[in-house]
Amino acid sequence: MFSFIIFLLFKFFLLFKFFLLFKFFLLFKFFCFLPLSSKYGRHDIVKKFLTAKARPTARDSFNYTARNLRSDIVAALISGGFDPNFRSSRPEHKARNVLEEVCVLVDGSRIQAHLEEMMIGIANGKAKVLAPNGDRNRLFLAFDNPHPIPVTSVVLDRIMWRDLNDEKNVFIRGVGPRGLRSWPHQSFPHDKQCVGMSYAEFGPGDYGMFRPEDVVGVLVAIAREEKKSPADAEKRQRKLQRQQQEAENKAQVDGWAQQQKRTQASLAHQRKIQQQEQIKNHQIRAMQQNKAI
User: Where are the compositionally biased (Polar residues) regions (predicted)?
Assistant: First the structure.
């Protein structure tokens, strides 16, 4: 009887062990096989996992997939619940999301049509095109690509052309030795119909200077602030002048009051002395009259 109980306990332990292994296999299947199949471009396997309701986890593989221009897998992952705005936590990705990863690390020398298809697919997946990564958005991240010209062209022509003149596309990092910024293709602003921008860069002793009144392309917020600044400065100047005039008037009035007090005190002192002299003279005359009697 005792051996039979031991046998049942052993069988129960084996069943429990197999159950745990099966659960681990399911977790590994959904959490590991899906990212691996995405990373290595197995579209057929990815679709099967997504059909089996695999949850969108291990999103770092999303960046690898997009970087390798597997637009079919990226489209499947987005339709399966992957958010293109998710920022990878892996150190090598530097908190970039999938669109930023493509802009920085995609091989721009590959077929242009594949790159365009990838960019459009990500943008159509409700990617926030103008969201910054640090101090730059996708357009400026594309400048850091090893092949920046084809990647930047796709970014501009396919996903950012509507927002080209947006204020968020203003990015200034450095100034040349002569205080000028250069662009390798001078015809680019004209070809892309960029609005001309100008920004004041004051030197030593230039504080308070403003741009000419006929300047073109100033951002609305900056123009409004600068238009308000001279009026505010003039208002402050008038206020200071008024306060100074009031202080001078008060000082003058106080001076007159003090002078009047000193004059009155002097007159009172003189009257007192005169009264004392009169009393003294009266006493002397009275004494002289008494002696005469």
Answer: 257-278
